[in-house]
Amino acid sequence: MPVISIETYIRAPISLCFDLARNVDIHTKTTFKTKEHAVGGVINGLLEPGDTVTWQAVHFGIKQKLTAKVTEMNRPFDFTDIQVKGAFQSFTHLHQFSSKDEGTVMIDRFEYKAPFGFFGMLADWLFLRRYMHRFLTQRAWQLKRIAEDKAYGDYEVWE
């Protein structure tokens, strides 16, 4: 199965980064380009172990829904969500956090299997892996901006 790993240094405390990463409202802000928003399960606030959330977004010009479940959480170091229903055959998304210097290293490890057998593997090779890498990188960058603004600036994340 393909694996995408994104490492981001954030100049903010680990607990803030962890909570922002599992916040449904912040997820919506960090994925604004795909118009992603929660339409089922937990639709705002912090995700907890066992919670599910159904996201609706536009990818490749098509409105799609995906339901994910938080299967593991070790606050503030890691949590895992898996696809319950959606476009992928399967995925596991591990979110890891560790303190470093005056901030946090956030690692997104996204392991997935494309649908449609051979055609899915071909799509993955042609464009899906690059698309998902860019999507996860942009989300991490937005999360970094929000966390650093919250820790050291005037951006009010929770209001």
Biggest sheet, in brief? 7 strands, antiparallel
| Relative helix content | 25-40%
Biggest sheet, spatial arrangement of strands: 1-7-6-5-4-3-2
Structural domains: how many? 1
Q: Give the overall shape, derived from the CA principal axes.
A: globular
Rg over alpha carbons: 15 Å
Class per helix and strand makeup: alpha+beta
N to C succession of SSEs:
EHHEEEEEEH
CATH homologous superfamily label:
START domain
Distance between the termini: 40 Å
**Helix count, DSSP H or I runs of 4 or more residues:** 3
CATH topology: Alpha-D-Glucose-1,6-Bisphosphate, Chain A, domain 4
Q: Could you tell me the mean pLDDT? A: 93
Strand content: 35-45%
The level-1 CATH class: Alpha Beta
CATH architecture: 2-Layer Sandwich
Overall number of strands: 7
Q: Unreliable runs, pLDDT <50, ≥5 residues?
A: none
InterPro entries: START-like_dom_sf
Protein name: Cell division protein
Give the structure's gist in a few sentences.
The protein has 159 residues and is α+β, with helices and mostly antiparallel strands. It is built from 3 helices and 7 strands. It has helices at residues 14-21, 24-30, 117-152, and strands at 3-10, 37-41, 52-59, 62-74, 78-85, 90-100, 103-113.
Structure description:
A hairpin with a 3-residue loop joins strand 4 (62-74) and strand 5. Helix content is 32%, strand content 40%. The protein is globular, with a radius of gyration of 15 Å. It has a single domain (3-152), classed as START domain (Alpha-D-Glucose-1,6-Bisphosphate, Chain A, domain 4, 2-Layer Sandwich). It has helices at 14-21, 24-30, 117-152; strands spanning 3-10, 37-41, 52-59, 62-74, 78-85, 90-100, 103-113. The mean pLDDT is 93. The chain has a seven-stranded antiparallel beta sheet with strand order 1-7-6-5-4-3-2, with helices on one face. By secondary structure, it is an alpha+beta fold.
